[in-house]
Input
Amino acid sequence: MLSVLVKEFAFFLEVLTMDRRSFLTAWAQRPGITAYNHSPAFGSHERTLSTGLEPWVPSVAEPWDAVRQGHLLRRTMMLPKWTEIDTISSLTPSAAVDLLLNTASDPAPPSQANHETTSLKGLDSPLANALKATWASDDAELKDWFANVLLNSPLSIIEKMTFFWSGHFTSQFVADESYVIAPLLYRQNQLFRNNGLSNFQSLAFDVTLDGAMLVYLGGILNTKSRANENYARELMELFTMGLGNYSEGDVKEAARILTGWRVAQFSDEATPNGIFNTYFSPADHDEGNKTYLGVSFSAIVDADNTEFLVKKNEIQKLIDTIFTYRKQAVATFICRKIYKFFVYSNPEGTDETVIAAMAQLFMDNNFEIKPVISALLKSAHFFDNANIGCQIKTPAEYIIGIARQLGYKTSMAANMTTILQELFNPPNVSGWTGWHDWITTNTYPVRSTVVTTAIGAMTDQNVLDFIGQFPNNDDANKLITSLGALMLPRKLAQARHDDLVSRLVSGGKDYEWPSILSTSPSTAARNMRDVLTTICNLPDYQLC
Output
C-alpha cells in the first residue's frame, strides 16, 4: 500500500504544479480517469472557459445528475450524504440552490458559550497556568463543537458560509500575549452564522466592534495616547479592499477613529453592557479632527463622546466611507475570495471576467451577499466541466466529509489539525493559504491513514446500512455508479467502474451480487470495505 501511495502522490504532485489547462488534461489522460461524459473540452489542450454568470441549463451532454448534484453539495457543504443528493435530485438546479440558501441552521450553543472566568491579574504562576489551561480546554471543546455543527448541518449553505467567513475575518485563541477566550470566539462564530448571507457592509461594521476581533487585533489596546494600527490596517488590506487602495496615512487616521472600544471578557473587570459584550471607553477615544480616504471627520466635544454617537458618527461613517469611496475595490476583492472558495482556488486560475460580473452584481445589490452567491451557484460557469472536481479538499472538507459519508466521527478537530487546518486557529491574520498547501508529502499519507481507519472501523452492520441507502443496491453496476457519484467528484471511467464491480463480487460475475448481499452479508460487507478503501485511496478522492 505504501508503494502505491508513493506512486500516486508523485503523480498528484506533478499535476498540482500544472496550470489549470494542463492539470485537467493530465487527469483526463490518466489511466482509469475519464472526463465528465467524455467532454472534449475537458481533455482538450485548448481549454478557454467561455461560460459566465448566465444560468446553467441542463442538457443531454450535461445533465442534472448525481455527479452535478454532488458537485453543488460538495462546494456548499462539507461533502454530501446520499440522502441529500437524493433530495435535490427531484428539484431543478435553481430550486436546489434556493433550498440551500434559504434553509436556516440554528445549532445549540456549546457549554463554553457563557463560561465566565476571571482575568490573569494578580494571579501567581500556578493559578495563572491553571486558568490558561481552563481557557485552552474551553477552546478545544469549542473546536469539537464547531466540527460537529459542520457535520450535522441541515441541507443548507449556512455552515459552509460560516466556515468561509471564519477564514476571512480571522481570529484565533492565542494572539501574541492575549487570549481570545471561547465565549468571544463563539459569539463571532454566531455573527457569521446569522449574517453570512446578509449585507457585507453591515457585516464589516459588526466585525469592527466584535469582541473577539477587538482582542485578536489589539483593538482593546487602542487609545488616543497610543493608537494601535493593527485592525485599521487589516480592515483595509485583508477584510475589505486589498492592497493599493489606501495610504499609510489612512491607516493612522482609521486607527484614531477606532480608539476607545473594549470588551468585557472577564468577571473581575468592567462589564457596563454585560459580560462578553463590547463597550466604549470615552476617556480613551481620540476626539480630534481626522481625515480618512479624503473624507473629514470633525472633532467632537465631550458631550458627543458617547458610545451611541461615536458608533454612529465615526465607526459607521468609517465603514460607509470605505463602501462609498472604494466601492469597486471592495466588490472585486470580496468577489474574488468568494470565487476562489466556491469555484477554483488556484490564485493564478481565477476567471476575472466572471469575478467582474459578480462584483457588478454585488454593487447593484448594495453589497447584499446572497444575490451574488445565488447567481454564482446557478451559473453555467459554476457547472462548467472544467470547474467540477478541480478543488483540493480542505482538511475540514476531508475529515468532516469522511464522517458525513462513512459515519466515522472520532477526533474530527484533532485529525483536521494533523493535516494542517485547526478550527479557530488560522496560521496568521490572512487565514489559510490553501490550494497546494493542503497536500504535502507529510499530509497525503496521513489523509490516507485517516480514511482507511474510518473504513476499518465500520462494523458489518454499518457497512450494510451504508449499502442500503442506495437505490437498486442489489444491482452491482448501479450500486457502483451511485457510490462513485457520492465519493468522487467526476463520473467513473468504465475501466475503473468494472474494477470496482469486480471487487464487490470477489472477482466473480456482477449478477452474483444479489446472492452475496442476501445470503452472505459478512462477505458483502468485506467486499464493500475493499471497494471503499480502493476509492478513498485514489488521488482524485482528494478533490471536490
